[in-house]
Amino acid sequence: MKTLCLSLGMLLLIACCCNAMPDALRYNTGPVECCYNFRSVVIPKKYVFEIKKTHHSCMLKGFIVKTVKRRSFCFRESVPWVLEAYNQMQNPEGSGQQQ
């Protein structure tokens, strides 16, 4: 009985400590929004409903801008107006200026 418990304990320890998890399970398999085509136009702030960053598993990083008409557009992380609008939406009470 001791040998059986010791063997099962060692087997469990080995299974947990080694990388026995398949590579496919390491990535999010749920619905993830990624960007493949990026826009260069400016969307007026009054038409912006939501801005989200692309998921960390996406190959191309950027922002997904959803308009009040629920249309989504992708923009690169380096686009200044999107970055500024995203920061304002994340921190609405601070305008970024100190008094």
Overview of this protein structure:
The structure is a single chain. By secondary structure, this protein is an alpha+beta fold. The protein is 27% helix and 17% strand. It has 2 helices and 3 strands; from the N terminus they run H-E-E-E-H. It has helices at 2-17, 80-90; strands at 48-53, 62-67, 72-76. It has a 3-stranded antiparallel β-sheet with strand order 1-2-3, with helices on one face. Strand 2 and strand 3 form a beta hairpin. The longest helix has 16 residues, at 2-17. It is elongated, with a radius of gyration of 23 Å. The termini are far apart. The mean pLDDT is 81.
Short description:
27% of the residues lie in helices and 17% in strands.
**Mean pLDDT figure:** 81
Oligomer: single chain
Total helical segments = 2
The value of Rg in angstroms is: 23 Å
- In whole angstroms, how far apart are the ends? 73 Å
Shape: elongated
Strand order in the sheet with the most strands: 1-2-3
Q: What is the percent of helical residues?
A: 25-40%
Which structural class is indicated by helix and strand composition?
alpha+beta
Q: Which regions have little confidence, pLDDT < 50, spanning 5+ residues?
A: none
InterPro entries: Chemokine_b/g/d, Chemokine_IL8-like_dom, Interleukin_8-like_sf
Subcellular location: Secreted
Signal peptide: 1-20
Protein name: Chemokine interleukin-8-like domain-containing protein
